[in-house]
Amino acid sequence: MSKEINRLHPVSAIITSAKALKSMIIPVAIIIVTNGFNFSFNFHSEHFFQTVLLFGVWGVAALLSLVSGIVKWRTFVYWFEDGELRVKYGLFVKKKRYIPFERIQSLNYNEGILHRLLGLVKVQVETAGSKDGKPEVELTAIRKAAADVIELEMHRAKNQVIEQTADERSLPIEEEVSIPTIYHMSIRDLLVLATTSGGIGVVLSGLAAAVSQFSDIIPYETVFHELADFVKIGVFLIALIVMLILIVAWGVSVVITLINYYDYTVRIEDEKLIITKGLLEKKRITLPLNRIQAIRIVENPLRQWFGFATVVVESAGGNGEDGKDKKITLFPLIQKRDCLQTLEQLFPEMNWRPEFIRTPKRARSFFYRIDFIWLIPIIGACSYFIYPYGLLSLLLIPIMILLGIWQHKTAGYKIDRKQLTMQYRVFSRITIFMEKKRIQSIESTQTYFQRRKNVMSIKATVMSGMTGMTGNVPSLEQQDAESILYWYEH
Amino acid sequence: MRAEPIHKISRKGLTVWRLYGVLQTLLLLVIAVLVCYGTYYFGWPSFIYFIAVAVVILSAVLSAYLFPKIRWERWRYEVRENEIEVQHGLFVVKRTLIPMVRVQHVDTTQGPILKRYGLGNISISTAATVHTIPALVMEEADGLRARISELARVAEDDV
Fold first, then answer.
1. How far is CA B8 from CA A183, A212, B58, B109, in A?
2. Helix A220-233 and helix A235-261, axial crossing angle in degrees, nearest 10
3. Which ipTM value was assigned to this complex?
4. Residue A77: CB atoms within 10 Å
5. Which residues, 6+ apart, have CB-to-CB distance to A362 below 8 Å?
6. Is the separation of the CB atoms in B127 and A463 below 8 Å?
7. Could you tell me if A415 and A483 are in contact, meaning their C-beta atoms sit under 8 angstroms apart?
8. Residues B3, A136: Cα–Cα separation, whole Å
9. What is the pLDDT of residues A202-261, one digit of tens each?
């Protein structure tokens, strides 16, 4: 065990303080804008004191954040001891944190642009205990070689355990063999992903939001008059414009996807999944296989149609990027066939092609009946207030019924020895594979009406992030639902 | 049909829930009086009186009488060697199974009203979920807490 004390790279002081400064920019910008840029360093100007106050406060805050950044860098040390990653930091209040290697849920390497220029990497260590969505330990910037040492230490600690238990000779550290790639996204996949994801919608709504932000600046009346002329020119042009907007939205969505998912590769090494991705900012997530809580296959209708799926891994740790959302996308887009094959290789003991036991026919009405509670007031209001066109909202009824029937067809479950598989549809089809030992609790729910028809809904929760992830199969045959409860008990 | 869990919660729990309902109704009553006064003072439309009265009466009937009764009738729990089973719900009957090996920790809590009646809540936390059994007699809650933590200690399994 090396007890060598390691420090962060000096750049981390700058990164830490820059981060603090970044969060101050928006309030300052708001103050500046609301003041209408009435600033002046002229002593006789009436705005002089305002200016001094604002920039004084801002300057002090900037200085403080710089100092705290430096202090954090100077005091932060980490080392490896007794199979643990140990971290110590703090100037007045010393904080120490020891994390046993086997408790690490995921290890993330991020390389921002600055990091890449200097050959550095940001390391985030997550355990199941991560609260408020923050990683347990964050090494803001260390040299790549130093980051590799962490993995090496983890590996060594693991092998030592094996040594003790199996009384074997120390295993030779695995030579650098090419690690099998189990999944790689081609540019074509990325294009399909960008096209079929909700990203386009996000971009469109972003555009709309941007437009509404500038609504004061846009001279609506002039635009409106011109638009009136425009309409005369023809519907064709409008269609063209709409097309153009859609194409731009698509282009933006493609660019975003490319930047985020470029060179998306999943490899498996030493019982760990390693996901690398990113064009500008390179990310690398290491996830021990035995830390995976459940696996979810999500197929939105469009992708289901083309035989594509998304595979999401539920983990108690996380990917450190979007806070409370602790799911990790394993395969952003994959052919359903390939996906099942790959999963079979990864987890041979699980049944990936279960034959689902579906919900009984008499349960069908439960899938859309509940929707009428909110549907009828809406339709009533629409029809009443915007009379002729509001009646179009009546179309919602057949749509909801069809969706309900579709959901009814999709809902099902299967029990295989130690495994529970649930399938259901909200809008996308979701299939959750979970092991009995990972399920935290199972709940059955039954309304008065369901009891009359002898059907029952089942919810199973696994740990995922802070709140857990719940799979929900509505309106199963009561016997089936009870058999799940019985299976879970024994 | 699966058998219901055997234990019901304390009869005093029903009283406490009724008390909560009464308090809630009183709060609504105060608001209703204020609204009625406003209606009188500012000359708002008179149907507001009826709404205010209806809300108070409904609250009195439902939250002070009917809902506590249904909830109390429905609430059942059972702590077995390998799992805890809980049944509750007002309109929807919910039954939850929590295996002992999944239990991370157990808490008992007691607010001022519960304390007057010598009752307490017990919360069972797993890694992902929290389940609360309300209004147990305090000694029973403490005993249960000790028992669950004893049973939960036996097994160790990974999150």
1. 53, 57, 27, 19
2. 110
3. 0.83
4. 14
5. A453, A455
6. yes
7. yes
8. 44
9. 666 666 666 665 555 656 666 667 666 666 666 677 778 888 888 888 888 888 888 888
- Predicted TM-score (pTM) of this structure: 0.77
| A307 against A204, higher pLDDT | A307
pLDDT, residue A405, reads 93
Q: What's the rounded Cα separation, in Å, for the pair A56 and B88?
A: 59
A313 touches chain B (CB under 8 A): no
Chain B positions touching A485 (Cβ under 8 A) are: 2, 95, 97
* Closest CA of chain A from B108, distance in Å: 20
Minimal-distance CA residue of chain B relative to A127: B159
A200 touches A249 (CB < 8 A) = yes
The tokens of A191 are what?
Answer: 């294009």
Interface test with A, best of B97, B102, B104, B126 (most A CBs within 10 A): B97
Closest Cβ opposite residue B157 in set A316, A437, A468:
A437
Structure tokens at A52: 């001094």
CA dist B119 and B108 (Å) reads 10
Helix axes A11-34, A48-75, angle to 10 degrees: 160
* Residue A420: both structure tokens together: 């529970």
What percentage of chain A has pLDDT greater than the value 90?
19
Both tokens assigned to A32 = 């500046």
Under an 8 A CB cutoff, do B92 and A489 touch?
Answer: no
Higher per-residue pLDDT: A461 or A319? A461
Please tell me the predicted confidence (pLDDT) of residue A203: 63
Six-digit token string for A124: 């985030």
The CA–CA distances, whole Å, from B27 to B30, B31, B32, B37, B71 equal: 5, 6, 9, 16, 22
Q: Indicate the pairing of strand B92-99 with strand B119-125.
A: unpaired
Q: Which residue has the tokens 């016997």?
A: A479
AA letter at A258: L
